[in-house]
Amino acid sequence: MEIPAKSPEGSEKSPQCKELITSDTGSTLCTSSRSESVWTSASRSKWDIYHKPVIVVSVGVAIFLFGVVITSLSCFLTNNKKVYKMSGPAFLSLGLMLLVCGLVWIPIIRKKQKQRQKSQFLQSLKSFFFNR
Question: Which residues cross the membrane (predicted)?
């Protein structure tokens, strides 16, 4: 943990503290949030929405197939048979885990998108009725 350096007079606050005290809290909260704002209605492409789970699924499939190959090598090759028998199932389970995580992630994103659409609809209704 870093301790901020004290000023020569000791009672003055550092410039960072002054900035935090004088900053507008509402604007810093909105800009620092990780989720998208309800007020922005920029539509995103399907790739922008689903690229992370698709990458996780494809990496999971690749690792799973690599595990299948390594496990099958233990049946055909006689040298280093123990290494193949130990590492093959490890790659199988890791690939399967990534595959399942990616496949579960996709419905979660869909549900989140529907909630976001409902929220935007309710915000537009609220602004329609209350801004008259």
Answer: 54-79, 91-109
